[in-house]
Specification:
By secondary structure, this protein is α/β, with parallel strands linked by helices. 37% of the residues lie in helices and 26% in strands.
Length: 250
């Protein structure tokens, strides 16, 4: 079986789920963060023979890691249901423990996983904008100077960058998946740099926003491990289906 893990509000993941079904990927199951939070039972064993997971959902469906062939992982965070059940004094502790548990069982999933968890995120690394900018520059992408003082909040800095993008450039969205580029058409050297950035971030799929002025001077603006999959269209769906079926290593 194959899984799509996501939030119930992730319209992009729901679109991908329907598209993969239409392409014949079956059995395919959509599992939301909310349904995981209300699961009847969890079994997670880690020993010398490996790690194993069994989840019994509220509707009676059972998910066994031994039966999973591939996963599209779009989980951002566990549902806050568990933390809300804790008393106020232990709520933060409960949230941290739940996050650690999710990192462990997601890491145990077999087969092709798009994207695997990382210490900084359940579906890959969530770097600060400054680190994405540095990594993009090292990968060969043109970047703008990043400035943020101790007096600036991240929201203020992001607003300044967005304002700069709207005033001077056109935005293009691309998705790097396993070394291939989907979405907007970009020059080959830019496409290769996008692939290098995804590989350096150790994530199988990465969404990037690139800004250009009159089709030239392509500049990195932002990156995310949770891109809008609809930007890649059917070609992206076909490539995801191929990876999930063949189990291509990352």
């Amino acid at each position: 079986m194959w899984l799509v893990l996501c939030s119930s509000s992730d319209a992009s993941a729901h679109w991908a789920f329907q598209g993969l079904l239409q392409m014949g990927l079956a059995p395919l199951q959509l599992v939301t963060a909310e349904s995981l939070a209300s699961a009847r039972a969890w079994e997670h064993h880690v020993n010398s023979s490996g790690a194993h997971v069994t989840i019994t959902l509220a509707n009676g469906a059972v998910i066994r890691s031994s039966q999973i062939r591939g996963v599209l992982n779009r989980l951002v965070a566990p549902s806050d249901f568990t933390a809300r059940c804790a008393v106020d004094a232990y709520r933060q502790y409960a949230a941290a423990e739940t996050q650690a548990f999710y990192l462990s069982w997601l890491h145990a999933l077999p087969g092709a996983v798009i994207n695997r968890p990382a210490p900084l995120g359940l579906s890959g690394p969530w770097f600060h904008a400054s680190e994405w900018t540095l990594r993009a520059s090292r990968a060969g992408l043109r970047t703008c100077t990043y400035r943020q003082s101790a007096r600036d909040s991240a929201a203020i800095t992001d607003a300044r960058r967005a304002s700069f993008s709207r005033e001077r450039t056109a935005a293009h969205h691309v998705i790097a998946l396993h070394g291939e580029i989907f979405g907007a058409q970009v020059p080959s050297d830019v496409a290769h740099a996008c692939g290098r950035l995804a590989k350096a971030a150790n994530t199988r799929m990465l969404g990037l926003q690139l800004n250009s002025r009159e089709g030239d001077e392509w500049t990195f603006a932002d990156a995310t491990v949770l891109p809008d999959l609809r930007a890649g269209g059917v070609p992206l769906l076909r490539r995801m289906a191929q990876i999930l079926v063949t189990g291509e290593p990352s």
